[in-house]
Design a protein that fits this description.
Layout (H helix, E strand, L loop, with lengths): L2 E5 L2 E5 L14 H15 L6 E5 L4 E3 L4 H6 L4 H16 L5 E5 L2 E3 L1 H8 L2 E5 L5 E2 L2 H4 L5 H10 L2 H10 L5 H7 L4 E3 L4 H12 L6 H9 L1 H7 L5 H8 L1
Parallel strand pairs: 2-3, 3-5, 4-6, 5-7, 6-8, 7-9
Antiparallel strand pairs: 1-2
């Protein structure tokens, strides 16, 4: 399960199991609950602070809990609402946020990275990818708004309609990430960026973010139903 550390003014949210590597860090119900609980802890802190989200090993996050999803299609709409809740919370989080993308960020994992204010991605290995087109899965209204709000139109079109896998340098050139770093310096690069922003934790920051991401936040707040998922397919 995810766990929390602190380095000076920077909280580090690790998405996998402490002491283990190569967890896929999928969005299970329990995983979502624990992420929210840890973010509650961060929000309850006082003073200058920022958040870095990262993981270890091969994956940043491999996205939705597809095993549960395909076994519970009658309950998928409520589950997707919970996934949207994670994206919304990070988009409007009242601290500066940096994703340190250590490995593959696929599907909802890619969207989680893109929900952060800034992204630092490993340069030599790992892909940012939206594979939904290959899986026959639609983008929800909220997911569509998040992706198209965070990427340029042509990059969003390529990512969403082709499932292209962006490595670090290509993701940087496309504006998907803000910086690349070697594996051994990735965490330090993200911490350095986050620490420099910690003083920006002011009462105005969440208001600025909510205004900046108003369209995506409104779309993510729309409950998922059979009707609007069909709409997302068209």
């Amino acid at each position: 399960m995810p766990y929390l550390e602190r380095d000076g003014n920077v909280f580090v949210l690790s998405l996998g199991n402490e002491g283990q590597t190569d967890n896929e860090n999928r969005f299970s119900h329990e995983w979502i609950d624990e992420v929210h609980a840890l973010l509650d802890t961060v929000e309850a802190s006082e003073g200058p602070a920022a958040l870095v989200t990262t993981a270890t090993g091969k994956f940043f996050s491999n996205g939705l809990d597809t095993d549960w999803l395909f076994a519970n299609l009658d309950r998928m709409h409520g589950y997707l609402d919970l996934v949207h809740g994670i994206f919304s919370r990070i988009l409007a989080f009242p601290l500066p946020t940096v994703a340190a993308v250590n490995g593959h960020a696929f599907g909802a994992g890619a969207m989680l990275a893109s929900s952060h204010d800034f992204r630092v991605m490993r340069a030599d290995r790992g892909f940012w990818c939206l594979p939904e087109v290959h899986l026959g899965m639609p983008f929800t209204i909220g997911m569509n708004a998040l992706v198209t709000g965070r990427l340029t139109n042509q990059v969003a079109l390529t990512a969403m309609t082709t499932g292209h896998r962006y490595g670090g340098p290509e993701a940087l050139a496309a504006g998907i990430v803000d910086e690349t770093a070697e594996a051994e310096t990735l965490r330090t690069a993200a911490l350095t960026r986050a620490a420099a922003l910690a003083a920006n934790r002011t009462p105005s920051l969440p208001a600025i973010k909510r205004s900046l991401h108003a369209a995506a936040l409104a779309a993510l707040a729309v409950p998922n139903t059979a009707d609007n998922l069909e709409f997302a397919k068209s």
